[in-house]
């Protein structure tokens, strides 16, 4: 068994959860923090001997969707019985090649003194094939593996990230193909996802300082510009017309909701 904890947030994710849990079944502990599922999600979690906890209502909207991801990740750190903690979405699959590195980092005392987090690369699955070429979805590295003893807490209710306990600790990028995840090219689902994040971002910016909000939006616009360049230079080498249209829709929605945030910031 791998001496590490996997933390997963769930809410009616029966369709994808089995593949996710099967990829981490050799971890010492799997924490499933559930938002009130009424499908087969909890039954699947019990099959893999997961520890199941309820998401506190104060971290959710009335429709049970999460409104503060950082608070729930802090909860996972608090509940974890292991120092090394991996965060996965319920539709993500951990690549087997990453397991050896996680085993190493779970045992390495030198790493615990040097690092507070590790960035894992995420690769999209499209039509049952993993896309390994450059797209707007890759390279996409996120801080998903952390030493909880080196983490102060997570910040921001969405697009959350961990803060180290001291300035001497650093993060490290794991370059190999770490996580794979399916993408849904349905435009309606994509709009719903962006609109959901927009509601959290709008509240986040209204509670913060003006210049911090401006900094957040400016960074987001730079990311969108990078998406546009990647779409222009790389997408013709990747997939079919449906996929390329999906990428363009993704960029359009990014721009649309970014400008909505700007308008709200200046109100």
Task: Explain how this protein is built.
With 267 residues, the protein is an alpha/beta fold. The chain folds into two domains: 2-182, Spore Coat Polysaccharide Biosynthesis Protein SpsA, Chain A; 187-265. It contains eight helices and eleven strands. The chain has helices spanning 14-22, 41-47, 69-79, 96-107, 109-114, 187-206, 210-234, 241-265; strands at 2-10, 27-34, 51-54, 84-89, 93-94, 115-126, 129-130, 141-147, 151-155, 161-164, 170-182. The strands form two sheets. Strands 1, 2, 3, 4, 5, 6, 7, 8 and 11 form a nine-stranded mixed sheet that branches. A two-stranded antiparallel sheet has the order 9-10. The chain starts with a strand and ends with a helix. The model has no long low-confidence stretch (mean pLDDT 89).
Quick one: CATH class of the largest domain?
A: Alpha Beta
Structural class: alpha/beta
Element order, helices and strands? Answer: EHEHEHEEHHEEEEEEHHH
- Distance, first to last CA: 54 Å
- Overall structural domain count: 2
Named CATH topology of the largest domain: Spore Coat Polysaccharide Biosynthesis Protein SpsA, Chain A
CATH architecture of the largest domain: Alpha-Beta Complex
**Oligomeric nature of the chains:** single chain
Shape: globular
Mean pLDDT: 89
Q: What amount of the residues lies in strands?
A: 25-35%
- Tell me about the biggest sheet? 9 strands, mixed
User: Radius of gyration, Cα only, in angstroms?
Assistant: 19 Å
| Helix proportion range | 40-55%
Q: Count every beta strand, where a strand is a DSSP E run of 2 or more residues.
A: 11
CATH homology superfamily name of the largest domain: Spore Coat Polysaccharide Biosynthesis Protein SpsA, Chain A
Given as residue ranges, the uncertain stretches (5+ residues, pLDDT < 50) are none
**Number of H/I helices:** 8
């Amino acid at each position: 068994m791998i001496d590490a904890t996997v933390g997963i947030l769930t809410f009616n994710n029966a369709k994808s959860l089995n593949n996710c849990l099967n990829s981490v079944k050799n971890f010492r502990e799997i924490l499933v923090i559930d938002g009130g599922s009424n499908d087969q999600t909890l039954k699947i979690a019990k099959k893999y001997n997961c520890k199941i906890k309820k998401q506190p209502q104060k971290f959710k909207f009335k429709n049970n969707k999460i409104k503060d991801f950082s608070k729930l990740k802090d909860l996972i750190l608090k509940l974890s019985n292991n120092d090394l903690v991996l965060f996965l979405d319920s539709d993500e699959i951990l690549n087997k090649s990453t397991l050896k590195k996680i085993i190493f980092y779970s045992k390495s005392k030198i790493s615990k003194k040097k690092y507070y987090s590790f960035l894992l690369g995420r690769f999209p699955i499209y039509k049952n094939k993993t896309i390994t070429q450059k797209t707007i979805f890759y390279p996409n590295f996120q801080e998903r593996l952390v030493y909880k003893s080196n983490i102060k807490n997570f910040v921001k209710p969405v697009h959350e990230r961990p803060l180290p306990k001291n300035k001497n600790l650093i993060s490290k990028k794991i370059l190999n193909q770490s996580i794979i995840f399916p993408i849904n090219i349905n435009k309606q689902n994509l709009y719903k996802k962006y609109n959901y994040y927009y509601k959290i971002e709008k509240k986040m910016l209204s509670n913060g300082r003006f210049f911090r909000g401006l900094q957040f939006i400016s960074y987001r616009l730079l990311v969108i510009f990078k998406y546009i360049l990647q779409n222009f230079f790389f997408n013709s080498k990747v997939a079919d017309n449906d996929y390329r249209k999906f990428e363009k829709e993704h960029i359009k929605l990014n721009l649309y909701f970014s400008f909505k945030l700007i308008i709200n910031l200046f109100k």
